[in-house]
Amino acid sequence: MKESIPKIGVYVCHCGSNISGKVNVSEVVEYATGLPNVESAQEYKFMCSDPGQQLIISDVKEKGLNRVVVASCSPRMHEKTFRLATQTAGLNPYYFQMACIREHDSWVTENPEKATLKAKDLVRGAVARVAHHEPLTPRVVDINPNVLVIGGGIAGMQAALDIADAGKKVFLVEREPTIGGNMSKFDKTFPTLDCAACISTPKLVAVGQHKNIELMTYSELIDLKGFVGNFTATIKKKARYVDASKCTGCGICSEKCPSKKILSEFDHQLTYRTAIYTPFPQAVPNTRVIDKEHCLYFKKGKCKACEKFCEADAIDFNQKDEIIDVEIGSVIIATGFKTFDPTPLTQYGFGRFKEVYTSIQFERVNNATGPTSGEITTKDGRKPESVAIIHCVGSRDQNHNKYCSRVCCMYSMKFAHLVKEKTGAEVYEFYIDIRSPGKGYEEFYNRLQEEGTHFIRGKVSEVTDIVDDPSDQGKLTVVAEDTLARKVRRIPVDMVVLSVGLEPSEGMQDIARMVGFSLDSDGWINELHPKLGPLATASDGIFIAGCCQGPKDIPDTVAQAQGAAGSALSLISREKLAIEATVSVINPNRCMGCLQCENVCVYGAISYNPALNVCEVNEALCKGCGNCASTCPNKAITVKHFNNDEIMWEMEGILSN
Amino acid sequence: MNDIKIVAFLCNWCTYTAADLAGTSRLKYEPEVRIIRLMCSSRIDPVFILKALMDGADGVLVGGCAPGDCHYSKGNYYARRKVAVAKTIAESMGINTERIRLSWIPASEGPLFAEVVNEFTEKIKELGDNPTKNEVYL
Q1: Chains A and B: how many Cβ contacts under 8 Å?
Q2: Is the pLDDT assigned to residue A131 strictly greater than 70?
Q3: Strand, coil or helix: what is A76?
Q4: Is there a single domain that holds both residue A349 and residue A331?
Q5: What confidence score (pLDDT) does residue A320 get?
């Protein structure tokens, strides 16, 4: 039953000083008191807090309010909270309207007077709208228990394993030919120095073998449609030109492939691979891939050496990209990071001097499966006598990435330890500040100092092949100002490692658009709330794990992955989900059966009833976009909670000044 | 000249979220815009736009998802048609159609939202008070 005489309670939130710092809250409250149908108006420090909500609940009971307006943050933030409070107070949850005076006002407006004026307008709009609200009942839908995980690095693998172990189905999509991500390139991990492969390869195998995980490597998400609980993901499985069901991973094809001079992506251009390849020996799945761009057969129409030698008959040059749809209820984004490309920092000589490495290349140099089988040697095979490690390359840099990449100090010190251990060389760490917050991290720093690593506080100005002493010919000179000793140091070294920062993976913009979440100015995913919602996004049912949200180390990544898996499982285990009551309704007395609504509905939710010559809405299919309502020439269609009256009253409320 | 007023009808999934993002990023933009949330930009009825211009708005901004990224598949394309209808009618009513703008702003583009608002506000200020807003038509 709709309450005939609205008695509205208006609550204006200070949000600490987030709102009250700009908007004169008392003035807005006083103004609201005089608005039509407003019974009472109040202000409170934090409306979303328990006392704030209690204020609403007790006012409804004591003052007989039947409508509630809260002027605070975005409804995308707390609409649910206040609807629940309204419901707890004994009212229909839809007898509530929110005015966003934080994101759309106090945070974006320079002038306090203008901000206060804007807040008044928005409150007036909300008051005018809520008076015309209808009581509605949320719809209940089933939640699809399947989960889609995007990205097969350590975050994606861990999340997939946790969900699969709980007995739920997981689709794990990875665009590279193998899962494992960046972690599989590392040798040792800081500060414990345990071997990355020893802890990650068992995960790869577990993911590959888990009966609840459907692994889709060399595949990409190309579309995501639907809502929390019921999404349809469209995935492109790129053609490998190798039949995964037949390939035994023996590797004879790679041995016979004549195109051998292709720079390896996995080894970051330090080695070569063949056109038919697998990124690394422990790859999961161990099915090879033909790189169409470099394959002689695809380029020139002849060769087929791999096909000739494949005993399993697994090569299939006619394989096509496959597009498949999977039905899921929630998504975990775990797209990770890429490393900063130091080429624009020409003063460091990357690409110019062969002994200048990026840190990810140096991980490969250290790795037993890498180009030197784990020996640290220069490219001409010498054991280095001295190595320079330059911190903050591309990070904490106004010209590149302003943020700290968080892991570089620690991995740089790990390198220093490994170099010392394997070669006995002198190691010079050029740093701005050493950042070692974490369990055992500061202790590791102390250990490195005791081991005799030279820490030089200063940003390197140049790496040059001009040496001061003729006996150092062939070495590189690292020039830096030692800000503690207050002098310029010129240190001859055999190898230079650039500790490059972390950047969001390639293609994040596309995924953000497709899935519907936002990225910050650096390109990392915006979490729902920086403190209290670090695993979720503003889109319900979309969770995040690992470096796609911001640079982090392996323990934090794993923790976040397990958290995201827990969030997804918590959603799934509800089984049913109350969703917005916003659906279209057709008034058969006004409908003239013109079918224009049916024509514009992309969900097929509208059908024509010839017996009555009217159109009808199937509520189960309707998503509440309202396209039909504004298309209907006879205004026979209403969208619940977004009907013409409600929108018009809000608009007129805003404008009537 | 009085303070101008701009009404912005924004779709919940993209442009409204972009406006939220502009807020959380603390981007400062012109204060005349008043946002009304719609689930989809296709909910925009030409009547809303015209009524806003007759009831005191100096400009109307409609914001939807970028082409190909509409949360409801292709609602933003329908919004384009509806805005075009509104413009045609506005023209016949003697309203400058530059007072009506459709912008496609993805959820991740907070800075773009601020930029569009600033640019549109500047345009409206240039056009001055909406002369039709105090006249009675119906």
Answers
A1: 157
A2: yes
A3: helix
A4: no
A5: 96
Q: Supply the angle between the helices A154-165 and A554-572 in degrees, to the nearest 10.
A: 40
Mutant choice from B17, B44, B53 vs A, greatest count of A C-beta within 10 A: B17
Q: Which of A74, A517, A602 sits opposite B74 (nearest CB)?
A: A602
If asked whether residues A66 and A89 sit together in one domain, one would say yes
B84 in reach of chain A (CB within 8 A)? no
pLDDT in tens, A429-487: 999 999 999 999 999 999 999 999 999 999 999 999 999 999 999 999 999 999 999 99
Could you tell me the residue range of the domain that residue A227 belongs to?
Answer: 139-238+321-336+505-578
Q: Which residues pair with A389 in a beta bridge?
A: A429, A497
**C-alpha distance from A237 to closest chain B C-alpha (Å):** 21
pLDDT in tens, A564-573: 999 999 999 9
> Is residue A77 within 8 Å of A89, Cβ to Cβ?
no
A82 pLDDT above the threshold of 80: yes
Structure tokens at A329: 């209820």
- Contact residues, chain A, for B26 at CB < 8 Å: 107-108
What's the whole-number average pLDDT of chain A?
94
Q: Please, are residues A146 and A167 in contact by the beta-carbon 8 Å criterion?
A: no
**Rounded to an integer, what distance in angstroms lies between the CA atom of residue A70 and that of residue A177?**
51
Question: Which residues does chain B have within 8 Å of residue A596's beta carbon, measured at their own beta carbons?
Answer: none
- Domain check: are A342 and A403 in the same one? yes
Amino acid, single-letter form, for residue A181:
G
Instruction: Kindly report the CATH number that applies to the domain delimited by B6-135.
Output: 3.40.50
**Rounded Cα distance, A67 and A37, in Å:** 9
Q: pLDDT by residue (tens digit) across A188-222?
A: 999 999 999 889 999 999 999 999 999 999 999 99
In a domain, residue A366? The reply is yes
Q: How many separate domains does chain A show?
A: 5
ipTM here:
0.96
Q: Which amino acid is at A52?
A: G
